[in-house]
Design a protein that fits this description.
alpha+beta, single chain, 4-stranded antiparallel β-sheet
């Protein structure tokens, strides 16, 4: 399995994002329960809206297919997605990969 760091950049439709957020978080919680999602959360600063997510997946095409199922993506709320392989060296997840 490979680790991936995913950066979402959201569009400006905060009202739609707020309405879809419960479904988005339920989707993420299911992936966390399966051990696919290791962590996620929105950026807390006032720069452009977005989030960082860390996934465990076989490969990038499979991960991108999974990301297409995200309710935020389905509703067109994700303006840009950056996917990067990530090499974890230290930390509490290091022994899980």
């Amino acid at each position: 399995m490979t680790l991936f760091a995913v950066r979402y950049t959201y569009d400006d439709r905060t009202d739609v994002r707020d309405a879809v957020r419960p479904e988005h978080r339920a989707w993420l919680a299911g992936l966390a329960d399966e051990g696919v999602l290791l962590g996620s959360g929105p950026f807390a600063d006032d720069a452009e809206p977005g989030a960082l997510l860390v996934f465990r997946a076989e490969d990038e095409p499979g991960l991108r297919g999974l990301l297409a199922d995200d309710p935020f993506a389905r509703e067109g709320l994700v303006a840009a997605t950056e996917v990067r392989t990530w090499q974890l060296v230290l930390g509490p997840w290091a022994d899980q990969v």
